[in-house]
């Protein structure tokens, strides 16, 4: 017969066994739960990765669509205007588990900032055009000097408002001036004076193209037309754009007929066609979304080439 003391000593041992068993069960449950969560996360990652790959493929298909549209347009006409198919936005096209949307923007309807240089030296005529554009936009004309110093090949400061290596080496992080043409308008964020407010105001009116380009009078806003036609005020440029919206300019004579008498338009300043366009795409596929933009250069024949392509 067990004594009361013996009973009392066995009860705790039995209780410990129960606690240990419960602990093992709880640990097994936690492990199983962690495995399920890990497997679910892994499966989701695989799914998102697959969606992203498919979205990238569709993005490329969208760029090929833009190149085909621009190629067909060049075969049908050498005059470019906002009434042509390339200027129409591609509405979101439903795809399996996603959609594709995009549009094309003419970059020669803007002022090409790289026109400021001619074989590495300042082009005074184009510099005057850019200063006039800055004035029209209520921005400091001195910004033109900062930009010239950024892209010209020498180390001389254009004016007290300019900036060369000595200025940029004191920035955080320190860097050097580019001493080359702009690759993209986004590069302006590195240039002295071009803060977020300036960029927001300026961006709709400027481009950065790899060669000298004239402004397309059929697609340019009145601010740009006024800037490149000496003596034409903004009100006069707006009247020209209003006329253009009724009927695009078919040739240079057609455009010059709208210019006030006495004003001279240099052939290198105004054209009625474009070779550079930006295609913008937005693709959704399952849980993935891809946006992309590409600068396309169109030649007289064949598909436009891709100068650069960005996928944020």
CATH superfamily of the largest domain, by name, is EpsJ-like
CATH topology of the largest domain: Ribonucleotide Reductase Protein R1, domain 1
Overall residue-averaged pLDDT value: 84
Major sheet strand order: 1-2-9-10-11
Count of discrete domains: 2
List unreliable stretches of 5+ residues: 1-11, 21-48
Short structural summary:
The protein is an alpha+beta fold and 312 residues long.
Report what the structure shows.
The chain is of the alpha+beta class. The protein has 2 domains: 45-107 and 275-310, Pantoate--beta-alanine Ligase, Chain: A,domain 2 (2-Layer Sandwich); 116-204 and 222-269, Ribonucleotide Reductase Protein R1, domain 1. It is built from 8 helices and 11 strands. It has helices at 4-76, 124-136, 143-151, 165-168, 196-202, 222-228, 234-246, 252-256, and strands at 90-95, 98-106, 111-112, 117-118, 121-122, 206-207, 215-216, 270-271, 276-285, 288-297, 305-310. A hairpin with a 2-residue loop joins β4 and β5. α2 (124-136) runs antiparallel to α6 (222-228) and α6 (222-228) crosses α7. The longest helix has 73 residues, at 4-76. The radius of gyration is 31 Å and the shape is globular.
